[in-house]
Amino acid sequence: MIGLIRVFTTQDTDILEQHGRKITELYGVPVISRCIPDQPRGIYDDETERAAEPKIVELGKNFEKDGCHLLVISCAADPAIEQLRKHVSIPVIGAGSSASFMALSMGQPVGVMGITESAPLIVERLLGDLMVRYLRPEGVTNTTDLLTASGREKALETARHLVEQGAKVIVFACTGFSTISFADVIRKELQVPVIDAVEAEGLFASTFYNQMVI
Q: Chain centroid to CA 108: how far?
């Protein structure tokens, strides 16, 4: 089993399991999803990331105790990933690094879109000069804003701006775009490759998981 950590708090089972369900549908691996407590708006700045870190570590430790073979932190900032790796003996995959490595493999100018003021450090560091621009949709300041019609409209405008400014590939620096299945919208409307962070983390996680359970 793959243990998937959601970094915002929800009682909605459908939303909670959305990322894990996508990974299972795409790659045929079993995923169990759980969320950290007391963060209904998730991670959207340094303060909320610091608050989430010990919760992520604790949740990851519990996943390992429950028999998971591999962990996924389903957040493009890869929060607490190094801390968690020190506390568990199983592999830990991050969404941001997974998406960045996929973008690097294409070797094309990358436009990054997310919900924070600047791109996650892990994404910025890995992409380097390939990242032509980072943009946040107007009025979107946390992952729940993407669930609104206005948030989705502004997100499409943002993707269009990135393409106009030279991006040949779009990378999602927020897994909230996956929650609303926004990659397919951009692919259809703008005819540009989109690297969905959940699809990327799932590809890496499933590859390693299938080797571990042979």
A: 20
Give the three-class secondary structure for 105: helix
The 3-state DSSP class for residue 132 equals strand
Give residue 183's identity as a one-letter amino acid code: A
Q: Residue 129 is which amino acid?
A: D
* pLDDT at 144 exceeding the cut of 90: no
Reported in sequence order, the residue ranges of the chain that DSSP labels E, i.e. its strands, are 2-6, 31-35, 70-73, 92-94, 110-113, 131-135, 169-172, 194-195
Helix (H, G, I), strand (E, B) or coil at 20: helix
Which pTM was predicted? 0.90
Query: Between β-strands 169-172 and 194-195, what pairing exists: parallel, antiparallel or unpaired?
Result: parallel
Cα 175 vs. chain centroid, distance in angstroms? 3
Distances (CA, A) of 120 to 30, 58, 194: 28, 22, 17
